[in-house]
Design brief:
heterodimer, A: alpha+beta, two-stranded antiparallel ribbon, 21% helix, B: alpha/beta, D-Maltodextrin-Binding Protein, domain 2, 2 domains, 6-stranded mixed β-sheet, 5-stranded mixed β-sheet, 22% strand, elongated, binds flavin mononucleotide
Chain lengths: 159, 248
Amino acid sequence: MIADMSAEDIVGDYQEVTLQLYGGITRKVLYTQIETPYPDGKLIVSTTNPEGVITHVNQSFIEMSGYDEAELVGAPHSILRHPDMPAAAFKDLWDTITRGETWQGYVKNLRKDGGYYWVKATVIPNIRGGKLVGYTSVRRKPSRTKVDECINLYPTLFN
Amino acid sequence: MSYMFTVSPDFTPDHISGWYIFNTWLQKHTGIGIHLEMYDHFLSQREAIQADKIDLIYANPFDAAMLVREKGFLPLVKAQGAADEALIAVSGESQTNDVTDLTPGTRVAYTDDPDVRLMGMIMLEPGDLDATNIVPVVADNYVLVAKHLLKGDADVGIFLAEAYDGLSSMIKKQLKVLVRSQISVIHHALMIGPKLQDRRDEIQQLLINMESDEKGGGVLKSLGFEAWQRVDDEEMEFMIDLMDTLNT
Ligand SMILES: Cc1cc2nc3c(=O)[nH]c(=O)nc-3n(C[C@H](O)[C@H](O)[C@H](O)COP(=O)(O)O)c2cc1C
């Protein structure tokens, strides 16, 4: 389960929207127009189980998302879902990784404080002894040119 | 029967005798005949691995995936607290203050250390640079990477952070660091091949206890670190997955 976002966590003016997440989850999210720049030289890393529930996050993940480790581990990865991200991107992500392949894309993520940050994400299936045990996503600093392309492209992918 | 041990060719020259001393120590404590073979280049080392000549290797993280997944190697230990980090530097006189100031056609100096180059190229991506639009300037070592920057025949250099920190202060004064990685989970590891795996637990334990051995502590110092630290299978698998994502 993911709780609704609460106004007291939000920094700055915000908008409100209800997201329909996978598995019939609905979540009220509050979001601002404040961007947090990607930290230079760092990788943001998380691992999930095969269902997309977070099992591990690194320190950079905690710092950038604004959540504590305890709030993240056990939560569905859609805890970072930003309303500006088209569903098609995540459908492509899940179609790709469930085929056993690596997915790469640019993602706008939602912080606990309502702000956002852009990443270049690579998601890979974790195979141990021939069996799928989960997925790992490693994010790096994206090129601004690529982010600008996504800012233009993503709104056209909503239907 | 004699086994073959090799060390990632990016070892620090100061520690070469340390590896021979370590090999002697290891043979004495295991009773196993081990020959240490040093290769000058990653390419020749990989050929030896492909030909199944290697039984023990202090491996570069870049080669870990191939060693584990194709050649059946398993991790033993890593240098305590060690991590491979990369940094991007330019000449102190360069107009460039941020990777995003760089443009296609940038001349990038690096060595053939595969993990450092990978981390370095990732740090150049925010400037829209990749393997297809840079001009590579390959150098034999990091002092030469620095010299390329100072002489102006490269615009940026990719360094192993540790090697950069070890440059003389004279050189460092004339350089400017743009970005330094803080990844923490990419590291070299001592790994054991299939032919020796029935001795794995014993050798791993021996190495973990090496710092408290009468002579072991001194041998470790000659390698440049204090102790070996256990690397379990999942830590290695995690690092391999991470390297795979960076390689994509
Ligand atoms: C390893 C892994 C990492 C993911 N990282 C993110 C992420 O950073 N942000 C995000 O919005 N979704 C991420 N997802 C996708 C989510 O699981 C989810 O599909 C997405 O947030 C959309 O929500 P929905 O599928 O419930 O509609 C990740 C999935 C996996 C398997």
